[in-house]
Amino acid sequence: MTLDRSGPTSRIYFSQRLRLHYVDWGNPEAPPLLLVHGGRDHCRNWDWVADALRRDWHVLAPDLRGHGDSQWSPDGNYTIAGYVYDLAQLIHQQELAPVTIIAHSLGGVIALRYAGIYPDFVRRLVAIEGLGASPRRIRERRKRAIAERMQSWIDEQRGLSGRLPRRYASIEDAFHRMQEENQHLSPEQALHLTQHGVNQNEDGTYSWKFDNYVRAEPPYEMTQAEIKELWGRISCPTLLIYGKESWASNPLDDGRISYFNNARVITFDNAGHWVHHDRLDAFLDLVRGFL
Prior knowledge:
- This protein is an alpha/beta fold.
- Strand 9, helix 9 and strand 10 (263-268) form a beta-alpha-beta unit.
- It has helices at residues 47-53, 80-93, 106-117, 135-142, 146-161, 171-181, 187-197, 224-233, 251-254, 275-278, 280-290, and strands at 9-15, 18-24, 32-36, 58-62, 99-104, 122-128, 198-200, 206-208, 238-243, 263-268.
- It has a single domain (9-160, 209-290), classed as Rossmann fold, CATH 3.40.50.1820.
- The protein is built from eleven helices and ten strands.
- The two termini are 21 Å apart.
- The longest helix has 16 residues, at 146-161.
- The mean pLDDT is 96.
C-alpha cells in the first residue's frame, strides 16, 4: 500500500505538565477515530491504517508519554494510570467523545481500561493483543512477595538509570534492527517505522525516541479483580484481535473473553504481535466492516 505523502499535522496537548504530541490526519467534520500505539513504538506506526481510513474518519494518533515526540516523564515513572489519564485528557480537551478507538498492545491495555472507566465515551473499540500479561504470567508474579517485587524494581530502575540509549551508526543499522524485531515487515514498512522512530544525535548517530525507563515493570498495579471489573463495564462493541504466530495469550484459550459483555475475538493466520502491519489489507477489511 502506497502512502499519501502529504502526511498528518503535528499537534501538542498538555497532561500532568507533560508536553505530549499527537498527529491529526484532518477531516474534522467526520466522526473521531483515535489510534493508540504500543510500548516502545510511536504514533506514525499507524500511518497505513490512518491513510486508509482518513476519508471517512477524523483520525488522531497520540504519542504516549515517553514515546515518539512526546515528553519523557521527569521521574522516569510510567504507570498505566498515567497513560489512561493522558488518553482521557486528549479526549476531553479535543471534545472527541463518544470516540472510536483502535489500539495495539500497551495501547490496548490503556484503551480497554478507559472504556471501562467511561463506557459512554467510547463508541466502538478494536484492541490488537491489548489485554496485557497472560493469566499464567500473572500467577507467576503473585508467587513473589511485595518486598521481592520492590527490590527487583529498584534494581531495574538503577540499571536503567545508567543505561544509555543505544546508538546506531546509520539509519540503515537501525532499519536492520527493526527488521529483526518483526520479520513480517516489508522493507518499505520497516524503513518508514525506523525513520519516524529515531532521532539523530549530535555526533551523527541515531537512537530510538522512547525513554528507556518505559521498559520497567511496575512492582504493583490494579488488581486482577479491578481490571476484570473494568472490562465488564465496557458497553461498546469490541473486537479483540490476535495473530496466530504471536507470543500473546489468546483470550479464547485462557478464558479472559468471559469478562467481556460485548466482545468477540478474531485471530489472523500468518501474523504475529503487529497484526495491523503483518496482515494490513485483511485487517483493514475487518475493521471497515466493524466500524
